[in-house]
Amino acid sequence: MLIKRATDIPSSEITSEYVYRNRRDFIKAATATLGAAAIGSIMPETASAAGSKYDTTEKQTPLSNVTTYNNYYEFGTDKGDPAVNAVGFRLRPWTIAVSGMVKKPATYALDDLLKGITMEDRIYRMRCVERWSMVIPWHGFPLATLINKLEPLPSAKFIKFQTLLAPERMPEQRRPILHWPYTEGLRMDEAMNELTLLAIGVYGKEGPPQNGAPIRLITPWKYGFKGVKAIAKIEFTDKMPVSAWMEAASNEYGFYANVNPTVDHPRWSQAQEQRLPGGLFDRPIKTQMFNGYTQYVEKMYSGMDLRRNF
Q1: d(Cα 250, Cα 149) in Å, to the nearest integer?
Q2: In this structure, what CATH number is given to the domain that contains residue 210?
Q3: Would you say residue 306 lies in a domain?
Q4: Does residue 88 contact residue 82 with C-beta atoms inside 8 Å?
Q5: From the first residue on, what is the mean pLDDT of each consecutive set of 10 residues in the chain (310 residues)?
Q6: pTM of the predicted protein model
């Protein structure tokens, strides 16, 4: 497989036609690549999340698309690579190292961190910077729950996340596609926002690996590259983290990554998006400010120039 650097990927390669044309192939691929353990942990496509006030009523993206069309460069740069290359990726044992400006720094077993935390299901719109979008029922819990458990100091202004660094388990980390490990961050008020979720799975169950298991970040009013996967490190800091995509292409990917249809990507417009799964004749839909979650998040950016702080 030809591996390209992030800056070499043209917009013409954003969407493969088989996403739209070959539904049966998707289902077969999901069955073949998830593995017996993962398949057993995921509910059928027809499952729906329990009611939540944050749920969108839009049609959910089928499981076959959610699990086989992913951006996850640690497992490949093509959208279909992660479902194939993440087969056998071990989700347990898993630890998260917590450091920085926090009262309870330590390396925690994930299962210990999850003790006493109630899981919930939320159906969120998810918008990729590459102009495609999905509606996904995520299974997880508010990030604020974990933050309160760890007790950050008042001096902490940001939270920094890093993906597991394990080239022997994540094959594309052996190549300089991005600066590994994948790094992302949020301002503390963003991290504490009621929409911000730590997801451990989709469609009501844990996993699968290609969707970021065993634990990943979900901020539905932001573009998808903010959703750091397979989180292994969390740091509380007073400095704005430099994320992986900021480092790779700072003119294209900013820290905030808020969905804003009035701010174009340098190589394409963000005013419209293609909802997956799509048909050959489906028209793009209008992109909503903050991906439709304005009522929950706009106060955090009051007075900010959202064209400069992109």
Answers
A1: 33
A2: 3.90.420.10
A3: no
A4: no
A5: 39 33 37 38 41 92 97 98 98 98 98 96 96 97 98 98 98 97 98 98 96 98 98 98 97 97 94 90 93 98 95
A6: 0.85
